[in-house]
Each structure stands twice: as structure tokens, then as C-alpha cells.
Design goal:
about 30% helix; elongated; Immunoglobulin-like; disordered N terminus; alpha+beta; single chain; 3 domains
């Protein structure tokens, strides 16, 4: 018997991301997290100010205050889902290093699988985790709109009327949103594939934190919208942070990098300016958009600066922070879906994974082993007709560039194991032997749809205390003398099947396989 070992291929190459880039991702995530803490604290102070003003107005603005209190529970559902998603990703990729890690302090608290690209693909693209996040982002925005609609549908003395059109316009301008345009022009099948597909775990850390920042910033905007209807409200902030948030912090060479540069913990009346590497950026709705092209590989750094006046002290201040993103080279891999070889006579399905290249631009060709290919996109079927070695070549048609060659062994289908009564030998009862209709060739541990056939055999039938009788048979089913010998089985008889030949798909001639020997008891 031939034992076959399966080789499970991952279909993606591990990305060789430097420690400096990984640290940059976590540094960015840490900065946004700090900004979120400032925003959350600021929102609490705003609520306290609204409550105080409502008390001085003898409950005139109670409906507005109660509505403002409902904003945080709405956004916290999204924040919690993102935390759970990040925790699931970390767990699936091997867990985290301890928060206190003397052996290597720079890894303390960080995920062990920070370079893993398969877990994000599986959790957020294939298993639907990304769509769940997207749906919750959109649902959060709708809930905030519904809250404002319900609040301003009431009659509130002393509170100006707010039209539905004004509410719609305000909610549409919230930072909490999903970019539905970029992925449609990227060649990716979905927003989830564009956002999460084969992204390193480390690269998703700042992206998750950015969505939480969008949620808390939207909370700030909605609370301030409500507070503004109460008249003049004292809003004081004493801490500021500038941050950069990108929908895709890891890009391929030639792709466009886009980041949103924003100032955290500001009231809606604050005036500020943003510059990157000394160049001013236009500000729209509290954000400045920085765009650059990844023309060279490796880490790309830039410095963002915000200039503003502290509304609490009147002091002119400037806050800066350096950010980075990684430009990577497209990677490609070809994996056989069932085994690590191509087999003659059967369909051999393969999967093509080319990171950063649209499936429409992937070109696949083959050489050696009498190879032929069919299919399209990321899934192909290979047929071969000669033993040896075959090569699959993958190219980017759009860039007119070869991405890689992948070699596979070409083998014939392994020998089948011929059995009678599901055995290759041993003891059979008379009734069991008489019930047998023929020899059956079985391909054990062979993960393909293939069927072999018995061509011929020689049966030596030895009755008890008699000389053996040679019977030549053809085909797997017993007939004529062979069938009569089987039906005549009695205690003490012996049966030996030798020179058994079988023919499998792709064979030009029969092959000799195993012999069988039985004794009747």
C-alpha cells in the first residue's frame, strides 16, 4: 500500500513586515486610543454642562438632555463590536504577549501573530465579520438620525424647530461612515475584501481604533448639536491631540494612500489649521485629507501639525505628530486544492492568490507534464498527461509583469488496493465467500474522483486435499470457471489471486497490483 501525505497550502505568502513598521502601526493605534479617551471625557463634561444649564432653566431643556444621554449607549454598541472583533482576531492569531514582558519589553501587550494575514481574511472576509462591522457602522448612524428625528418631532418651548432636511444633512456629514467608492474601483469583490483582505493583524489595529474614534467624534457632534439648541453653552477643553486615520494603512506599490488628519477634543466653534510636512491642507467639516502615492517600497513617514487657539485659555498652541504607512510589493501564490502534486487522468483544481492584483488582471499559464489549464479568475483546473514536473506561471496582465513560477510534481494515480469482501487476505466463511461477485480496486486516501478497473487476474483454487487449479479471469466481475470456483467454496479450500492487473485513468496499459490469499473456515 502506498501512504499519501496531504500538504495543506495557505494560498498566501507571509508578508515580510519590518519591526519598525509594526511599531508604527501600534504607535498610531496608541495615539488614536489616547485621543478617544480625551473625547470621551470631553463628552461627559459637555453632558454635565447641559444638565447644569437645564437646572438653571428649571427643566426647560430636559428633552434635549435626555436625548444627549442616549447618544453614548448607541455608539458604544459599535465600540464594543470592534473591541470584540479585535479580541477575536488576536485570539485566532495566537493571543497576546503579557502586558509585562521582561524578556522582550517592546512586544509587551502586543499580539503574537502581528504579521498574520490569513486570520483577518478568514474572520472578516470569509466568515462575515467585516460585513457585521460595516452594517453596525451604518446602523449606528441611522440610530443617531432616528434619535434626533424623534427628539425634534416634540414640541419644546424655547427650542427652535429643526427640519428633517437639516437633520439628514447633519447626520450625513458625521465622520462615522463607510467608504463605498474606493473598493468599487479597486477590483475587489466587496468592501470587506478591500478593507480586510489579507491585511496583517498589526495594520488593522489603527483601523479598528479609527472607527471607534469616528463613533466618539460622532457622539461629540450629536451632543453639541443638541446643546446648541439650548443657547450659549460653556465648552472648555484643556487637552488636544492630532491624529491620522487611513482606511488602508498598508498599500501596494502604485496604490494611492489616503489619510484623514483631524484634531481631537475640539468644540464645533474651534478654529484650527492643518499642515503635513509643512504644506497646508484645506479643512472641510473638521477634517483635512492628505493624499500621496506609494511610489517606493517600505515605510513612508510624514509629520502632521495642527495650529489652534485653546478656547479655555486663549493661548495659541501647536501640536504635531509623526505618522507612517507601509508600501508593499504585490505577492502571489498558487496552491493545489487537494494535494501537493498534479495527477494524470483527473482534474486537478488550483487556487491563485495574488495580493494587490485584481483577479481580472491575473494571467495563468503552464508548462511541462503535458499540462493544460481551464477556468478563470482565482480558480483553475489543471490536466496533465506525462510524469515529471509542471510549472504554473502567474503574471499581471495590466502591468505586463511576471509575478512568479510555481513547480508541481506530476505523477500517475497511485496503485489501487484490490480487495475481496473488503479484505486483501485472511479467513472467510463459506457463505461469505460464495456471496462475492468480484475483485474491487479501491483508491484509498486519494482525494479525487477517480475509478480504476480490474483488467485480468490468475486464480489458484485449491480444494481441501487436492491440487491447485489455475483459472484465468478477465474483468473484475467473476464469470465462468472463476464464478463456479467461488460458489464451490467449502471448509479447508484455499484461493490465491495473483498477477492481478488494474487500469486507472491516465494509464496507457494495465499495472500489476497486490495479490490476495484466502482460506475458508
Amino acid at each position: 500500500m502506498i501512504n499519501l501525505m496531504y500538504l495543506v497550502l495557505t494560498a498566501m505568502l507571509a508578508l515580510n513586515v519590518s519591526a519598525e513598521i509594526i511599531n508604527a502601526f501600534f504607535s498610531l493605534e496608541k495615539g488614536i486610543k489616547h485621543t478617544n479617551t480625551i473625547i470621551v471625557d470631553s463628552n461627559k463634561k459637555t453632558l454635565e454642562g447641559m444638565a447644569t444649564l437645564n437646572e438653571t432653566k428649571k427643566g426647560q431643556f430636559t428633552a434635549l438632555v435626555e436625548a444627549a444621554k442616549k447618544v453614548n449607549p448607541i455608539v458604544e454598541k459599535l465600540v464594543k463590536l470592534i473591541d470584540e472583533s479585535r479580541d477575536a482576531m488576536v485570539k485566532e492569531s495566537g493571543g497576546s504577549y503579557p502586558d509585562v514582558y521582561p524578556d522582550n519589553p517592546k512586544y509587551a501587550g502586543k499580539p503574537k501573530g502581528y504579521k498574520d494575514i490569513d486570520v483577518p481574511q478568514r474572520l472578516f472576509v470569509e466568515q462575515g465579520g467585516g460585513k457585521k462591522i460595516k452594517d453596525q457602522i451604518l446602523a449606528t448612524k441611522e440610530e443617531l438620525k432616528a434619535l434626533l428625528t424623534s427628539t425634534f418631532s416634540q414640541t419644546m418651548p424655547g427650542v427652535e424647530k429643526v427640519s428633517q432636511a437639516r437633520i439628514d444633512s447633519f447626520v450625513n456629514g458625521l465622520p462615522l461612515d463607510v467608504d463605498e467608492e474606493s473598493w468599487k474601483t479597486s477590483g475587489k469583490p466587496s468592501w470587506e475584501a478591500f478593507t480586510f483582505g489579507y491585511m496583517p493583524v498589526a495594520a488593522l489595529y489603527p483601523l479598528f481604533r479609527k472607527w471607534q474614534n469616528d463613533a466618539y467624534s460622532s457622539e461629540t457632534a450629536v451632543i453639541n448639536f443638541l446643546a446648541d439648541k439650548m443657547g450659549k453653552l460653556e465648552l472648555k477643553f484643556d487637552q488636544f491631540a492630532v491624529f491620522s486615520a487611513s482606511s488602508k494603512p498598508y498599500i501596494m506599490k502604485g496604490e494611492t494612500y489616503t489619510a484623514s488628519i483631524s484634531l481631537g477634543a475640539l468644540s464645533s466653534q474651534a478654529k484650527f489649521s492643518i499642515s503635513v510636512n509643512g504644506s497646508s491642507l484645506p479643512i472641510k467639516e473638521g477634517n483635512a485629507v492628505y493624499t500621496t502615492t506609494g511610489n517606493s517600497l517600505g515605510e513612508q513617514r510624514y509629520k502632521a501639525t495642527a495650529n489652534l487657539q485653546n478656547p479655555a485659555t486663549g493661548e495659541n498652541i501647536s501640536v504635531s505628530r509623526e505618522f507612517s504607512f507601509e508600501v508593499g510589493q504585490p505577492s502571489v501564490n498558487v496552491s493545489a486544492d487537494k494535494m501537493n502534486v498534479f495527477y494524470i487522468g483527473v482534474d486537478n483544481p488550483i487556487s491563485i492568490a495574488a495580493a494587490g492584483v485584481s483577479s481580472n488582471d491575473v494571467s495563468v499559464s503552464g508548462a511541462g507534464g503535458g499540462i493544460s489549464l481551464s477556468g478563470s479568475g482565482n480558480s483553475r483546473v489543471v490536466k496533465v498527461n506525462a510524469q515529471g514536473e509542471a510549472t504554473i506561471t502567474v503574471s499581471d496582465k495590466k502591468a505586463n509583469k511576471k509575478l512568479g513560477d510555481f513547480k508541481f510534481r506530476v505523477k500517475r494515480i497511485p496503485d489501487p488496493v484490490v480487495k475481496l469482501a473488503n479484505k486483501t487476505g485472511g479467513v472467510l466463511g463459506t457463505g461469505e465467500m460464495k456471496a462475492q461477485l468480484g475483485l474491487i480496486p479501491m483508491l484509498e486516501n486519494f482525494d479525487f474522483e477517480a475509478k480504476c478497473e480490474i483488467q485480468s487476474y490468475v486464480l489458484y483454487y485449491t480444494k481441501k486435499r487436492s491440487d491447485p487449479v489455475e483459472i484465468k479471469g478477465s474483468g473484475g466481475r467473476f464469470a465462468d470457471q472463476a464464478a463456479n470456483a467461488i460458489k464451490a467454496a467449502a471448509i479447508g479450500d484455499q484461493y490465491q489471486f495473483v498477477d492481478v492487473k488494474a487500469k486507472c485513468p491516465g494509464d496507457s496499459a494495465g499495472r500489476t497490483v497486490n495479490s490476495l490469499a484466502f482460506t475458508i473456515r
